[in-house]
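Ticket opened by: R.M.
Priority: normal
Category: complex prediction / small molecule

The reporter submitted a protein together with 2'-monophosphoadenosine-5'-diphosphate and asked that the result be attached to this ticket for the collaborator who will pick it up next week. Submitted input follows.
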Amino acid sequence: MDRYLVFGHPVRHSKSPFIHTLFARQTQQELEYGLAEPAVDEFAQALRTFFDQGGKGCNVTVPFKEQAFTLVDRLSPRAKRAGAVNTIKLTDDGVLLGDNTDGAGLVADLKSHGVTLADSRILLLGAGGAARGALAPLLAELPSELVVTNRTHAKAQQLAAEFHDLGPVTAQTYEQLAGPFDLVINSTSASLQGALPPLAPALIHTDIAIYDMMYGASDTAFISWAKQHGARQTMDGLGMLVEQAAEAFTVWRGIRPGTKQVLRELKRNLGVI
Ligand code: ATR
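Result attached by the on-call engineer:
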């Protein structure tokens, strides 16, 4: 049976095996999908061993995505832009192809929520790996403006400069931000510590769409805060998780699974509904 897995550390609570097992059942693909949690300095060896032993493909999550970028034989254009690899496929001619499906997953989830990206003003909070992965796919949707803001301003400036050739992206400090924005995407890890990015509440209005790439059994700190200040449309990163997985599954198997039912089952599994 074709073998896939996700590498991460920690990875025990990963939902990827659950999601891919449902995708495989739905599309009648024979495969198994497991977990691997190598020590942080043993990832390269573990990856080699997995493919030497017949593995067909894998996902890569925190903290290995940047290292995976350096270990594959070939990179997709979107992985090259993201500077990180979350999906690896062993091609028929024995090449390890590194891809990145995170940004495509974000855009697919935004669209499935009916969010319009073309001609919109988008504010992206954070300038780490998650922001970097999102920039090219967001700019490909032709927003009128994409502003990146970050606690450490130099990192936002660096990203804006790097992606400037793809569209109207600029860097501003949190203090410089002037609304109205149509969509705010939180790519910071602040919610992990229950903290909030220092965004002025005046930027939140009733017609704004709020997206937090984080998710949990209850609202993230950022989503609670945005609701408190009047946002009516809020979305967390659970849909992005399922959509990036669907994109990876498509890369591996050449068949695109449906995501709606799987997302519903995942929510039930997490106790969200
Ligand atoms: P990831 O790969 O998930 O993006 P990362 O590369 O460590 O993780 O980046 C985390 C991002 O969250 C950074 O933009 C970070 O801001 P700094 O560059 O200033 O460190 C941002 N971040 C983390 N905690 C934050 C907080 N409490 N408030 C605002 N931004 C925060």
